[in-house]
Amino acid sequence: MGREEDEERAELRRKLEALEREVGSLRDDARRWRALMEARDISVSLYHPDGRPRDVNPGWEKLWQTPAAGFLASSFNALEDRETERSGAMRHIERLFRGEEVALPPMFYDTRQVEAVVDKAGVAHWVCCYGVPVRDADERPRELVMFHFSVPEGATIQRKYEALFEEQQALRASLEARNLELERTVQLIEAQRDAIQAMSIPVIRVGDGVLCVPLVGMIDDARAGQLLERLLEAIAAQQAAEVLVDITGVPALDAQAAAQLLKAASAARLLGAACTIVGVSPSMAQTLVELGVELGALTTAATLAEGLAQALARRAARAQPSRRPGRRAPPGRAGETPR
Asked: Which positions fall inside the STAS domain (predicted)?
């Protein structure tokens, strides 16, 4: 019996010591919690799982300059707070009330804009917030604890941000105005370029069914394309049968430019117009011979006057009615029937 009693006493002593240690730990936790809830430089607030405030410490009152009694008796709900929604932090608060620990990014919060705050007390602050859920035995959130810390440099950051934003807006407006001005300038340049192109390759009507295209300057690929386009449009519009391409003002004619002229003459023939190149100088003719360029498919003339005379002659020849071969009429007076 004595041995069993000793063992029971020892077991009870161990349990008592474990219980004392647990109570001591709980007392330490209670003291720590009491220290937090009595602190004046750390804002601590407790909330029910449905979002209603449960308790706040003096640090909360000091930070937000709002009476605790009025706030706790108000209809404020953390899950329906418009200021939190405006700052974009509501998704973090919702995570907290679902049982997650959260750290909110710095945000600007103005308690004076909260309708539930009594007499619109309070102040605006840049703050950081940390949220911790307190769980029950079933690991469900029993209450939610929020710690708020003022961020004094937040106001400076906000002012710099606003100044940068205004500068950005002004720069954007300036760029938009500049872009509009550039668009108008580009449109003006394009209109002037079109006008210059039209003037650089004029198509002149010099006779009935006869067109003249005087060229001045070098003939590159761009001008050759314009020549072909304007020439074909004019032939189709005026039903021209003769085209004179005057190259008197062309300083030099190389193999590529000659090929472009041959191409234009071939296109004109497809539309029923004969093409004559006028103004070929002796030096230009010598250069083309040295390059091996053949202009045999083209009709040429030394001067514009000569080319115009040839074109008008061909035009007149085509206009005369053709006479069918047959026996010559016998001599006699006009209208007399031979016997």
From this structure: 200-311
